[in-house]
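Researcher: Next sequence.
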Amino acid sequence: MRLKRCCNFSNNTECYTPRRPSMKAISSLRLTRRLLCLLGSSVLACSAFAQTWPTKPIKVILPFAAGGGGDTVMRPISQKLAEALGQQVVLENIPGAGGALGMRAAIRVPTDGHTFVMISNTHAIIETLQPNLGYVTLKDFVPVTYMASLPLVLVVNPNLPVKTTQELLAYDKQHPGKLNYASSGSGTIYHLVTEQFKYMTGSQMTHVPYKSSAVARTDVISGQVDLMIDGLATMKPFIESGRVRALGVGAATRHPHLPNVPPVADAVPGFNEDAWVGMMAPAGTPQVAVDRFSAEIGKLLANPEVRKLYADQGMGVQGSTPAAFGVTVKNDIDKWAHIIKTAKVKAD
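Model: Next structure:
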């Protein structure tokens, strides 16, 4: 039996029988309360994670050989990064398969926010060139931050009788199929930019892939291979000592570290390439870890002393938001997919 409720309005008494909430309304109310509780618990958990992360040493996988571009960028700031985070930052080189081995290793670890992996535009290239990678870059990883651009330079062994890019192309035309070029492996940035150079010039140079840029560089210096497009930062000492001869830089303008070396574009209009590196994390990594790691790297790369350290090696450094770096990676994947298909480049 329902009880009536009465209210007095200006000496008039009105009575009504209150409606009992339906079972559907009660269920909806209970569900709303549960969701609010879960949301509150989630917010508290995320807040607690953000305040305590990192809780153990952080591993950064470098899918490159020791002494390569990844080392050049990451090692100078690893100690300062560890100090900022309050935990050791451990760098682990896992080279091989054009950088794919390190990526595969990264997706096998727990996604607890304590493992990151450095990538370069080599990884954007092999996304198309090696269809059976075992992962999809923008599906199995999340972007963290852009880190550095590494200018490229075209060099030859000094015994090759050419002093300019124009002379190199003339020599190649006079001796079709005689020249060979080194790279740090099939699908790497050094391989693809040289294939692009070949496509734009009609060259018939032969590719000689190595397991690392350091080994490839050694054979160019010794004369086992004729030429190579390599990172300016790592090749600069050998250019200055005369052990290799620089013919052109990959960018559209001269580089301040090699003011007497013209751009390759002077001989090959439209050629404009450099390398870049950045940081990613396995998909599922807590966003608070991604954002904090990105922010701390960005702070370090904005430090004038740190920027000068890299500038002295010929590199430009700059952090970015995770979203902005994601756009960079996607654009490069699309760019190299087009070049690979247009130039009909095949993995060696």
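Model: Confidence is low (pLDDT under 50) at residues 42-46. Residues 23-52 form the longest helix (30 residues).
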